[in-house]
Amino acid sequence: MQRKVVIAEDEAYLRLLIQQSIEELEDEGVEIIATEDGPSALSAIEREQPALILLDVMMPGMNGFEVCERVRANPALKQPYIILLTAKGQEYDRVRGAEAGADRYMTKPFNPDDLLDAARAVLF
């Protein structure tokens, strides 16, 4: 089985940081697909069927909560593990993330090693 991760982050430097945080997984057969907004993330998720989604909340076109809800509502998807990775760290936002169907909520700034460990735990 090919393991895939979709990253959805609109800020280019953060997208690159997230990719670099988990890039060593590529040596273990993981494919990383990066997107920059909600609609492109949803399209990539539907096309690629990733095992893991690293999803920013504040994105143009469709926010991360909406993407998460659409993924969870789509029976054709294999119900990937979703980590919301966002600067919105208030309790209200964490509850909203859980209601949207996220499996985990991590706030920015994040520790790259923690993100790698979380990804590895989901994928292997």
From TrEMBL:
InterPro entries: CheY-like_superfamily (IPR011006), Sig_transdc_resp-reg_receiver (IPR001789), WalR-like (IPR039420). The modification 4-aspartylphosphate is found at residue 56. One of its GO terms (biological process) is regulation of DNA-templated transcription. It comes from the Bacteria. Keywords: DNA-binding, Phosphoprotein, Transcription, Transcription regulation, Two-component regulatory system. Residues 4-123 form the Response regulatory domain. One of its GO terms (cellular component) is cytosol. GO terms for molecular function: phosphorelay response regulator activity; transcription cis-regulatory region binding. This is Response regulator. It comes from Halovulum marinum.
